[in-house]
Amino acid sequence: MRSSLAGKGDLTLVSALADRQDNFGKPLDRYGAVTHEVFNQPVELVDYNLFASDAALTEAVKREGAAWAMDGLEAFGAHAGSAEFLELGTLANKNPPELDTHDRYGRRVDLVRFHPAYHALMKASIEEGLHSSPWTDPGEGAHVARAARYYMQTEVEAGHGCPITMTFAAAPCLKLQPDLAAEWLPKIQARVYDPRNVPAGEKQGVTIGMAMTEKQGGSDVRANTTRAIPVGAEGPGRAYELVGHKFFVSAPMCDAFLVLAQAPGGLSCFLVPRWRPDGTKNPLQIIRLKRKMGNVSNASSETELRGALGWMVGPEGRGVATIIEMVAMTRFDCMIGSSAAMRMAVSQAIDHCRQRKAFGALLIDQPIMTAVLADLAIEAEAALTLTMRIARALDHRDDGHEDALARLGSAIGKYWICKRTPGHAYEALECLGGSGVMEDSPMPRLYREAPVNAIWEGSGNVQCLDIARAIQRSPQTLEAYFAEVSSVAGESAALDAHVAALKDDARDLADFEGRARDLCDRLAIGFQAAALIRVGSPVADAFCRSRIDSRGAHQYGALTGVDTKAIVRRAAPR
Ligand SMILES: Cc1cc2nc3c(=O)[nH]c(=O)nc-3n(C[C@H](O)[C@H](O)[C@H](O)COP(=O)(O)OP(=O)(O)OC[C@H]3O[C@@H](n4cnc5c(N)ncnc54)[C@H](O)[C@@H]3O)c2cc1C
Fold first, then answer.
1. Of the residues 98, 260, 307, 338, which has the maximum number of CB atoms within 10 A of its CB?
2. pLDDT of 176 higher than 60
3. Spacing, Cα 262 to ligand 1 middle (Å)
């Protein structure tokens, strides 16, 4: 009875609406199914060229020695910015990796399954040489061109960059053990992605991970308790069996890992493959996958080594010095990755605000929002400019100044750029209002990913200690720093004063730890300001005004005397 009455009521309502118009003169729908028109909502930012639309990036590539790579980068940028490719990033994070420790018959498999989108991203990165190009094709602009590609690829998806970076960074470390390098490097550097869980001998291309961190210590790897027991003769290149645990092993489907363990002669570095040369599984067992707030597409595991076979890399007892060759390069990639995250955040924020109105005007034209967007763009451009300056230094390590700058600059840049990213992601997210919090926008992914680069490969304080170590052990690094920032003396009174004060404070490292954050912040700001001035960046003046004087102690958008509209126009992705 009730339902038939309700039905009659509905029909009466529909017929009453049938020929009527709404307050704006539009016909009301015959069946009442269309409730409203969607307006004042942006069109998604897809199908744009990540390279051609990025003035700061294109200028940096030309300037820092990779003009020869422009055409290839433009083609890459068009592909990376396509809707289909951007969607891979979304899918790889919506569908996290899953672990099977055993097969259905109870045999140990230690198999991580990834969504096809993750494999597609890995394949693209490896076929583009993001894991190897500066080593296989060194020369003018090699690191710069690779950094530009890695940057665009990270705008699409950050998580898969972890194994790409580790594979890339393994080369300088492995070269310290020429016999192992001769055997492994050709496959490490091949542009072939083969994700099968089979011995490396059956593959044309392999990937490399790293396992240092243990439960009792990550920064302090000297606390490692994993033991390495010699199988026969001892020493570099010789076989050992490893027993212990690792608390973080990312990308556990890599074909081999650089692992730190205590040999009889002290903490040493080992290359440990997933499979033994006889085709049996090496007992490198994945206990569980980490449940991470960000970096979701990338699998990170807890692993136990139960007599896993490995070969010593570099001198016995010099494990940290050996693996630091790898860590130095992963730190540089953290700079690229966090700069890319900032770029994507700026692109999303500007593109939203150029399409969204509030109180009768587009957000992008409302002065407070223009200032916020400009400030976000300044931060992103400063990050990229410093990163590309270091890429150039890496391309010229035979030059003393560039080598010293690469050493200290990558430590400063890793510390500062990665640390600036979470706040930047948050402010960019807020530009999208409530939609910025929604999981179907890219913003939550950028926000949750943002702290990761700051933590791994040397957390903030540890980076500060590394900066002090570089200055103490190699004073020429600080000389190179001051030569670099002084090359633009006279261009900005604020920077000149900043550098003068820094010279006094940074040369005296007594009580460094108590002053470390202050000194490292100032080193970073001075470096970014000088880099922007050196290249004639349109944001240089605004950077000096807003960063040097107030030393970053402001919310985004607290800019004065700056042409914010021009800065936003320059940074707009379309
Ligand atoms: C997503 C993810 C993936 C990872 N993947 C890997 C991997 O594949 N392989 C691997 O080996 N590790 C990996 N790690 C581990 C990572 O490298 C460590 O978490 C990191 O080095 C910090 O170590 P910890 O967690 O033990 O923290 P701790 O070393 O305990 O540090 C805690 C805090 O104390 C600070 N601190 C440490 N020492 C000092 C000091 N002397 N003075 C002042 N402050 C100090 C640190 O800066 C940090 O803020 C991964 C981590 C994450 C988050």
1. 338
2. yes
3. 19
CA 451, CA 441: separation in Å to the nearest integer?
A: 19
* Residue identifier of the C-alpha nearest atom 23 of ligand 1: 218
Q: Which amino acid is at 99?
A: L
- What is the Å distance from ligand 1's center to 218 Cα? 4
Return all residues near 255 (Cβ < 8 A) that are at least 6 apart. Answer: 187, 200, 203, 206, 207, 208, 273, 274
How many A from CA of 458 to the centre of ligand 1? Answer: 6
User: What pLDDT shows up at residue 471?
Assistant: 94
Tell me the mean pLDDT in the region 541-566: 87
Rg (CA), the chain: 26
Atom of ligand 1 nearest to the CA of 260: 11
Residue the block writes with tokens 């967007």:
373
Q: Where are the alpha helices (DSSP H) in 396-511?
A: 400-431, 443-449, 452-455, 460-473, 475-486, 493-507
- Give the pLDDT mean for 510-535: 95
Residue nearest to atom 7 of ligand 1 (CA): 249
- pLDDT value at 296 more than 90: yes
Best residue among 257, 457, 459, 469 to mutate for probing ligand 1, ranked by most atoms within 8 Å of CB: 459
pLDDT in tens, 205-241: 999 999 999 999 999 999 999 999 999 999 999 999 9
Q: How many other CB atoms are found less than 10 A from the CB of residue 469?
A: 13
Nearest CA to 471 among 539, 549, 523?
A: 523
Cα(first)–Cα(last) distance of the chain, in Å? 59
Confidence of residue 553 (pLDDT cuts 50, 70, 90): low
DSSP state of 177: S
Residue to substitute in 455, 465, 511, 520 for testing ligand 1 pocket (most ligand atoms within 8 angstroms of CB) = 455
pLDDT tens per residue, range 381-436: 999 999 999 999 999 999 999 999 999 999 999 999 999 999 999 999 999 999 99
Can you list the positions of beta strands (E) in 238-379? 239-250, 256-263, 266-273, 284-289, 300-313, 357-358, 361-362
